[in-house]
């Protein structure tokens, strides 16, 4: 008698033959996306002068996600980051993944749905990243996780259909295993934007589930109500996330929180500076930044913040006096004296 569990099982979604060379690059949408990403990467390398560590200014010029710029109305930064990559290693990993997985999903979904999943998953991932992280970010990972989510959901749907027909659920689920591995790596490797990954994954799963319910197929009964509800769910999540990702108040709050938890004085100054850019009247952040400047011996910058606080109104004089008293207690007596001198000569309206 043959032990069925001992028989090597084929994948639930067997790989299809993939075109190669120019036929792949120009004849498939996954190949065209690879070319677009390569063109942007070449531009990044040319402008920054580095293939390994492109500078932040170049990435921002080309559309990387930035919380302050989003709050200032540059909403296109929710879409453009999926075409940018931070160095050759980042570009290489994502390009390889797109090459291996992209065409397989393109054949399963069809060109139109493939592009819809890729672009909307990239958008959803960037919205999630902007809603929950204040770090600058770029990369196609959110779109790729959307493709992985599509493959995972299709794999489960096919597996359920096979179980209905045979009574046994297939065990060889390549997309499920790949998903688990990539989510695990995201928890282990520093600087991974897990919010973007999860946002792309959820978008890909929901959109593919909507497609299965709305589009005639042999795996699942048509259910236009469920499909429409899934589409509405995606739109609602996008709307809520976009509000969180572009709200000046929420972003300012997250930047202040990031400044308070930053591990170095340089990072604290950077985050407080971003917060002040959004809310110039944030006197508390100005005083905290001034204190950090004094620690670093940058008195001119510190006094710039103190004068800005005084310029907000006479009611902030007590806060400046308390600031000077704290400097005295910390051993910065000369700096405390200079602050009091500034306060005594200030022309406060």
Question: Can you characterise this structure?
Answer:
The protein is an all-alpha fold and 349 residues long. The chain has 16 helices and no strands. The protein has helices at residues 21-27, 29-48, 56-62, 67-71, 88-109, 111-132, 141-166, 174-188, 194-214, 224-246, 248-261, 265-278, 283-295, 299-310, 317-329, 333-345. The chain is elongated, with a radius of gyration of 26 Å. 38% of the residues are buried. Mean pLDDT is 91; it is low at 1-8.
What is the total number of structural domains? 2
User: How is the CATH topology of the largest domain named?
Assistant: Rhomboid-like fold
Give the overall average pLDDT.
91
Low-confidence stretches: 1-8
Percent of residues in beta strands?
under 5%
The largest pleated sheet is described as: none
**Can you name the CATH architecture of the largest domain?**
Up-down Bundle
By CATH reckoning, the class of the largest domain would read Mainly Alpha
**Helix/sheet category:** mainly alpha
What is the tally of helical segments? 16
Q: What is the CATH superfamily of the largest domain?
A: Rhomboid-like
Report how far the terminal alpha carbons are from each other. 95 Å
Number of strands: 0
Shape: elongated
**Spatial extent as radius of gyration:** 26 Å
Q: SSE order, as H and E?
A: HHHHHHHHHHHHHHHH
How much helical structure, as a percent, in the residues? over 70%
């Amino acid at each position: 008698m043959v032990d069925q569990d001992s028989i090597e099982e084929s994948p639930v979604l067997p790989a299809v033959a993939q075109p190669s060379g120019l036929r792949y690059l120009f004849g498939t949408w996954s190949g065209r996306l690879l070319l677009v990403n390569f063109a942007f990467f070449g531009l990044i390398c040319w402008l920054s002068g580095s293939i390994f560590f492109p500078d932040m200014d170049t990435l921002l010029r080309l559309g990387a996600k930035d919380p302050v710029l989003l709050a200032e109305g540059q909403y296109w930064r929710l879409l453009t980051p999926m075409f940018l990559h931070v160095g050759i290693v980042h570009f290489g990993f994502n390009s390889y993944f797109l090459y291996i997985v992209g065409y397989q999903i393109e054949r399963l979904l069809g060109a139109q749905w493939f592009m819809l999943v890729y672009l909307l998953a990239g958008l959803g991932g960037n919205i999630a990243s902007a809603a929950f992280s204040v770090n600058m970010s770029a990369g196609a990972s959110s779109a790729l996780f959307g493709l992985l989510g599509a493959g995972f959901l299709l794999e489960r749907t096919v597996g359920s259909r096979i179980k209905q027909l045979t009574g046994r659920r297939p065990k060889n689920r390549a997309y499920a295993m790949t998903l688990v591995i990539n989510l695990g790596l995201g928890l282990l490797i520093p600087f991974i934007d897990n919010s973007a990954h999860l946002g792309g994954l959820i978008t890909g799963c929901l959109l593919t589930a909507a497609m299965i319910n709305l589009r005639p197929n042999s795996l699942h009964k048509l259910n236009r109500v469920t499909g429409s509800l899934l589409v509405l769910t995606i739109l609602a999540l996008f709307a809520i996330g976009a509000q969180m990702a572009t709200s000046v108040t929420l972003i300012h709050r997250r930047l202040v929180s990031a400044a308070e938890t930053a591990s170095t004085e340089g990072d604290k100054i950077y985050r407080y500076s971003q917060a002040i850019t959004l809310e110039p009247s944030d006197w508390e952040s100005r005083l905290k930044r001034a204190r950090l400047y004094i620690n670093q011996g940058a008195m001119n910058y510190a006094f710039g913040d103190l004068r800005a606080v005084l310029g907000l109104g006479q009611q902030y004089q007590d806060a400046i006096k308390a600031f000077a008293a704290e400097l005295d207690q910390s051993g910065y007596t000369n700096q405390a004296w200079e602050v009091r001198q500034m306060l005594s000569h200030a022309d406060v309206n």
